[in-house]
Specification:
By secondary structure, the protein is mostly helical. It contains four helices and no strands. It has one domain: Helix Hairpins, CATH 1.10.287.3610. The protein is flat, with a radius of gyration of 18 Å. The model has no long low-confidence stretch (mean pLDDT about 95). It is a multi-pass membrane protein.
Length: about 120
């Protein structure tokens, strides 16, 4: 370590990350869809009183999907900057990044089903 931690630099980094989160939810439709799904899942988690372990798993899934959406958005914005015109390689890059989000979203739905379906069935 070269010296003490630069607290002001760390605070600026958090501010930049916060601006990125704000931009993600303000301008990206899919991020807002994931946010609505998160709220629904949180309400269901409270209603069904899921366990601490279940909450941890759900929170990890939510964070993974949001992180993937942020990475996907960053890749798409950078690809658009590199080539505003259609380019087949850029298309593959964007499609592959979107596939990563889709795979994690499917995983989150499966985990949600594992956690919530047994609790829903107990209501009947």
């Amino acid at each position: 370590m070269n010296g003490p931690i630069d607290i002001l630099k760390a605070v600026r980094s958090f501010r930049y990350a916060g601006a990125g989160i704000y931009s993600l939810f303000r301008y990206e439709n899919n991020a807002r869809i994931h946010l609505i799904a998160c709220v629904v899942v949180a309400i269901a988690g409270i209603f069904f009183q899921i366990s601490t372990i279940e909450w941890c798993i759900i929170v990890i899934q939510i964070a993974l999907v949001w992180a993937a959406e942020a990475f996907n958005t960053a890749i798409e914005k950078l690809a658009d900057l590199v080539s505003a015109d259609y380019h087949p390689v850029i298309k593959v890059v964007k499609d592959t990044a979107a596939a990563g989000v889709l795979l994690l979203a499917i995983s989150a739905v499966i985990v949600g089903g594992i956690v919530f379906i047994p609790k829903i069935l107990l209501l009947f």
